[in-house]
Amino acid sequence: MIEIQNLCKTYQTGSVKVNALKDVNLTVEDGHFIAVMGPSGSGKSTFMNILGLLDHPTDGSYLLDEVDTRSLDEYRLAAVRNRKIGFVFQNFNLLPRLSAQRNVELPLFYAGVAANERRALAAAALERVGLLSHIDHRPNELSGGQRQRVAIARAIINHPSILLADEPTGNLDSASSYEIMTLFQELHRQGSTIILVTHEPEIAQHAGRIVHFRDGSLVKNEKVESPLDAR
Ligand code: ADP
Ligand code: ADP
């Protein structure tokens, strides 16, 4: 469970201060699917970076599974991040010269997992996203939607409890976007907690709840009565 209380983030550049997050409160229970919306500059990325333990708040608290993240040093933050959090990006962030399998294995490679086990886990993750048949393809041999599936397989290879996705459909056409959102819903049904930034209202309708940011404040938190496509 994620418990955010009175979270503030101030950036200081020279004498200029920007209050990127102001007194944000949010609880996300395990297994929930939240869409984050808001205009450019409203604090969404800052919020996601803090949730992903990539950045520190200036004030307020962030409890992850009842652990106050302020009590963790950089080493433990990295350990928690690797174990519990998967990241999906707008630009996929795949390495162009590596096959789907090798891209998906990358987190395990850095963790020192043996090659056979890496291969087996990568195949299992690619199967979960419906791309086992493309295991040897390089990114330039895949469509945008397929590239994002590979990136999602990489994000879930360690079975993280939380998936953080920043505009995952931002570079996709509407048919691929829809497919990717159906995949996120499938992962949600299997128990993942998902927090997904989008500026497209139709995309947000796939989530169970939508939170809206404006000028660094969380201004609205609404339940989606019947999430698009939920079966
Ligand atoms: P969004 O993701 O909603 O577009 P951001 O979280 O990127 O919003 O930005 C929120 C505010 O914080 C903006 O005013 C932005 O200019 C500022 N900001 C973001 N990152 C930095 C940074 N590293 N240094 C200084 N200001 C920043
Ligand atoms: P709450 O109102 O308790 O905060 P949510 O609005 O997050 O709960 O979700 C209500 C229920 O709907 C939960 O059981 C959640 O698992 C389910 N749910 C949320 N999003 C989806 C979705 N996209 N597809 C299917 N079920 C969903």
From TrEMBL:
* EC number of the protein: 3.6.3.28
- Class of enzymatic activity (EC top level): hydrolase
* GO cellular component labels: membrane protein complex; plasma membrane
InterPro entries in the record: AAA+_ATPase (IPR003593), ABC_transporter-like_ATP-bd (IPR003439), ABC_transporter-like_CS (IPR017871), ABC_transpr_LolD-like (IPR015854), MacB-like_ATP-bd (IPR017911), P-loop_NTPase (IPR027417)
State the source organism's domain of life. Answer: Bacteria
- Does the keyword section mention DNA damage? no
What is the protein's species of origin? Answer: Syntrophobotulus glycolicus (strain DSM 8271 / FlGlyR)
Q: Which residues form a coiled coil?
A: none
What name does UniProt use for this protein? Phosphonate-transporting ATPase
Record keywords, A-Z: ATP-binding, Hydrolase, Nucleotide-binding, Transport
Report the residue ranges that make up the ABC transporter domain in this protein: 2-231
